[in-house]
Design brief:
This protein has 5 helices and no strands. It is mainly α and 130 residues long. The chain crosses the membrane at residues 6-27, 48-71, 77-100, 107-129.
Length: 130
């Protein structure tokens, strides 16, 4: 993590958390719950554990992506790498799992779309904030 802007990593993790709140909230909550087979009125665990865990995992992903990009990545490279990581690594990996699990294309588009934007945001923040 030598030369990596830790504040930018933290901001990138926060951006994923905020994006997730919007994406899986007002934008796609009903569709996502339906496609995932989740009763939106039933608790899946303590919110602090769920949201805390999600933030820690976002922080780990942002830090790993920052190391991948290296210190002071050019903005265009960081954005392109973010889209590529989200779409070509994360979303395609989900796609493989979803095919074998018999999950819907709609669920894959929702989840894959989120992670594509998540890593694009990581690239934007890490590419701008050196």
């Amino acid at each position: 993590m030598d030369g990596i802007n830790h504040w930018a990593v933290l901001a990138a993790a926060v951006s994923a958390f905020v994006l997730g709140g919007i994406w899986y909230g007002p934008l796609f909550k009903n569709a996502w719950c339906h496609e995932a087979g989740i009763d939106m009125h039933q608790s899946n665990g303590h919110p602090a554990r769920i949201f805390g865990g999600a933030f820690v995992l976002s922080l780990i992903a942002a830090a790993a992506f920052a190391v991948f990009l290296g210190p002071e990545p050019p903005l265009e490279f960081a954005l392109t790498a973010g889209v590529a990581a989200g779409l070509c690594w994360v979303a395609t990996s989900f796609g493989i799992n979803y095919l074998f699990a018999g999950r819907s294309l709609k669920l894959w588009l929702i989840d894959g779309g989120y992670h594509t934007l998540q890593f694009a945001l990581y690239g934007l923040i890490l590419g701008l904030w050196h």
